[in-house]
Amino acid sequence: MSHKIPRLGVNVDHVATLRNARGAVFPDPVRAALVAIAAGADGITAHLREDRRHIRDEDMARLKREISVPLNFEMAATNEMVAIAIATRPHACCLVPERRSERTTEGGLNVLDGHDHLKLVTAELGKAGVRVSLFIEPGKSAVEAAESIGAPVVELHTGSWCDALAHGEKERAAQEFIRIQAAATLAEKLGLECHAGHGLDFATAATISALPQIAELNIGHFLVSEAIFIGLPEAIRTMREAIAAGRAKARQGAHGEHS
């Protein structure tokens, strides 16, 4: 358990979405990544989808070449993506489920049915020096399967919790947060580093940062949305303040337990 402030990974996918809507060369997701780093991002996340709906192959190559912080390559566990990841050599690869019909990633990996395949992919990427994380649902069986697969990191899907809060469903939100807490606790017990992401805003990022097991948050769509109104640097600075405030609550709680 750590009381260090969670790292902030900024996802630049939807800067590329805006660029691709006009078939233009701007806004440039690599420029957005550099702005994010200057504003305090600890890492950059980008998802190279099978249909290339936002990030493109050349974006990934430029990100690896031009940024000075760790690159987290989100990808489906396919032969094509494994080959691109090995050629790119990012700091980390986050394996995510992917369907062409979805607007965004809907839920975590099926780590139970896909166990053997994911274990092979994780081992292959690991041999290439790439740290693997698995984007999973916050459940006991998923965390245990991730540990069996051999990934050193899990990223808990926070989308259901955030969605319940957004719709004022307090009981469902409370149940979802209990699931997240339990999954984070189990991940730590099994020796897995625990990240979280999907649907987070300033308030939910602060809340989840109070869980001392959370080492990193990956946030994209909300930050790009806020950038329209307050600018990307200010959005990132405000997010870092929210994360720090949440972790400060965890420290206060720990001190209270031992006083």
TrEMBL record:
GO cellular component annotations of the record: cytosol
Residues that coordinate or bind 3-amino-2-oxopropyl phosphate: 11, 22, 199, 220-221
Pathway annotation from the record: Cofactor biosynthesis; pyridoxine 5'-phosphate biosynthesis; pyridoxine 5'-phosphate from D-erythrose 4-phosphate: step 5/5
Enzyme Commission number(s) from the entry: 2.6.99.2
Known catalytic reactions: 3-amino-2-oxopropyl phosphate + 1-deoxy-D-xylulose 5-phosphate = pyridoxine 5'-phosphate + phosphate + 2 H2O + H(+)
Cross-referenced NCBIfam families: pdxJ, PRK05265.1-2, PRK05265.1-3, PRK05265.1-5
Subunit and interaction comment: Homooctamer; tetramer of dimers.
Source species taxonomy: Bacteria, Pseudomonadati, Pseudomonadota, Alphaproteobacteria, Hyphomicrobiales
Protein name: Pyridoxine 5'-phosphate synthase
Family to which this protein belongs: Belongs to the PNP synthase family.
Single GO MF descriptor: pyridoxine 5'-phosphate synthase activity
UniProt subcellular location: Cytoplasm
The protein's role, per its UniProt record: Catalyzes the complicated ring closure reaction between the two acyclic compounds 1-deoxy-D-xylulose-5-phosphate (DXP) and 3-amino-2-oxopropyl phosphate (1-amino-acetone-3-phosphate or AAP) to form pyridoxine 5'-phosphate (PNP) and inorganic phosphate.
Residue positions binding 1-deoxy-D-xylulose 5-phosphate: 13-14, 49, 54, 104
Active site per database record: 47 (proton acceptor), 74 (proton acceptor), 198 (proton donor)
Predominant place of localization: cytoplasm
GO biological process: pyridoxine biosynthetic process
Site (Transition state stabilizer): 155
Keywords assigned: Cytoplasm, Pyridoxine biosynthesis, Transferase
InterPro entries hit by this protein: Aldolase_TIM, PyrdxlP_synth_PdxJ, Pyridoxine-5'_phos_synth
Broad class of enzyme this protein falls into: transferase
